Amino acid sequence: MGAAIPDTVLARARQVRLLVLDVDGTLTDGRLWYAEDGRELKVFHVRDGLGLKLLQHHGIAVAIITARVSHALALRARELGIVHLYQGREDKRACLSEIASALSLPLSACAMVGDDLPDIAAMRSAGLAVAVANAHPWAAAAAHWHTQRRGGAGAVREVCDLLLLAHDLSAVEQARWQ
C-alpha cells in the first residue's frame, strides 16, 4: 500500500466483518455504457475481484448495494461468490442496516465504500467509511479513509488490502501466492 495508514483507520478496519460496496463510481469508473440494442455494459477491474475473493476466503463478508439494476452486475457478483447483492435499493443506509442485522453484526463491524451523494448516509452509519479517490467532495468528506486509486481502477482492491493488513492477513496471502 502507498501512503501510511493512520492508526485510527487501522483500528476501525480491524473491527470490519462486512465490506459493503456501491457500484457505479466505486466498482466501475462511473460511466454508463449502452450497446446499440439498449443493453447496459459494465467494466470491472480484475484486481478488485481478486481482493473481494480474498476477503471472503478469510471470512469477511461482502455485500453490494446499488440503486440501479444490472444483469452484468448480477453476473459479476455470482462469479465472485457474492451472495449479498441488493439492486434497486435507493436507501442504502436502510439496506446496510438490514444486512448487518441479518448477519448479526453491529454497524461498527461494517465498512462502506462509496463515491457520491446516495452513499453518504450509509457511509456515516458504518464503522469504516471509505471514499474512492475521485469521489464527489461531499462523499469524500464523510469518509474516514480515501483510496489513492479511482473507482473502477483498483480502488476496491486497495480497501481489500487495507482490511487484510488490519486483520494481519497480508503476510498470509503473500505467502500463499509464492
Strand order of the largest sheet: 5-4-1-6-7-8
Compute the number of strand runs.
Answer: 8
- Percentage of helical residues? 25-40%
SSE order: HEEEHEHEHEHEHEHH
Tell me the distance between the termini.
Answer: 19 Å
Report the structural category.
alpha/beta
Tell me the strand percentage band: 15-25%
Note the main sheet. Answer: 6 strands, parallel
Walk me through what this model shows.
With 178 residues, the chain is of the alpha/beta class. The protein contains eight helices and eight strands, in the order H-E-E-E-H-E-H-E-H-E-H-E-H-E-H-H. The protein has helices at 7-14, 46-57, 71-80, 92-102, 120-125, 137-141, 155-166, 170-176; strands at residues 18-21, 33-34, 40-41, 61-66, 84-87, 110-114, 128-131, 145-146. Strands 5-4-1-6-7-8 form a six-stranded parallel sheet. A two-stranded antiparallel sheet has the order 2-3. The radius of gyration is 15 Å and the shape is globular. The two termini are 19 Å apart. The mean pLDDT is 96.
Keywords:
178 residues, alpha/beta, 6-stranded parallel β-sheet, two-stranded antiparallel sheet, 8 helices, 40% helix, globular
